[in-house]
Amino acid sequence: MLRILRSRLFIIFVFTLFILMGYLLFVKNNTMGKVTESKITVINLSNQKRITEFDNKSRNYSYVSFDNLYENTALYFGSKIYQFGHIKKINTRDQTMLVTLDGNDPSKTCKIRYGSSDFARGISDLQEDDAIEFYGKVLSIDDYMNEKGREMSRPVISANFIQMKLKNRGK
């Protein structure tokens, strides 16, 4: 009787182990470490600012090149800056996006934190590869591993205003 009980417990243990391994493999392949969103849909449009409303405030922001921002991030903590680039990745869960700067160069990427009120009025959705212009404060540095396994860092900016890049502004 004791043998039968041990063999049944062993079978239950092995079965539970297989289920656990299958679950972990499924989760790893489908959700862990991946950003599945490719589009931001702004639901609360009432808090959005007009471009003309932000125009006076935009004069308080300085353009900082990516190279200068990357090499001297600590100097710019809390500074109001503006930049423009293309959306590389969107993570709606964390309300962050990766934006490539300076001619859509993937090695020149910064992380933007945003809220629904940070978008210009009239923007109801943004998606990857859209050209944007953003204004915000430099928050910190984000350390991450790139595709080649190398440890990298990028500036993190808290957006105050995001608009579609206007071609006629000469930027």
- Taking Cα atoms only, what radius of gyration do you get, to the nearest Å? 23 Å
Number of domains: 2
Order of helices and strands: HEHEHHEEEEEE
Distance between the termini: 82 Å
Largest sheet: 5 strands, mixed, barrel
CATH class of the largest domain equals: Mainly Beta
CATH evolutionary superfamily of the largest domain: Nucleic acid-binding proteins
CATH topology of the largest domain: OB fold (Dihydrolipoamide Acetyltransferase, E2P)
Transmembrane segments: 9-26
Keywords: Membrane, Transmembrane, Transmembrane helix
Describe this structure in words.
The protein is of the alpha+beta class and 171 residues long. The protein has two domains: 1-34; 39-166, OB fold (Dihydrolipoamide Acetyltransferase, E2P), CATH 2.40.50.140. Helix content is 27%, strand content 35%. The chain is built from four helices and eight strands. The strands form two sheets. A five-stranded mixed β-barrel has the order 3-4-5-8-7. The N and C termini lie far apart (82 Å). The model is unreliable at 28-36 (pLDDT under 50).
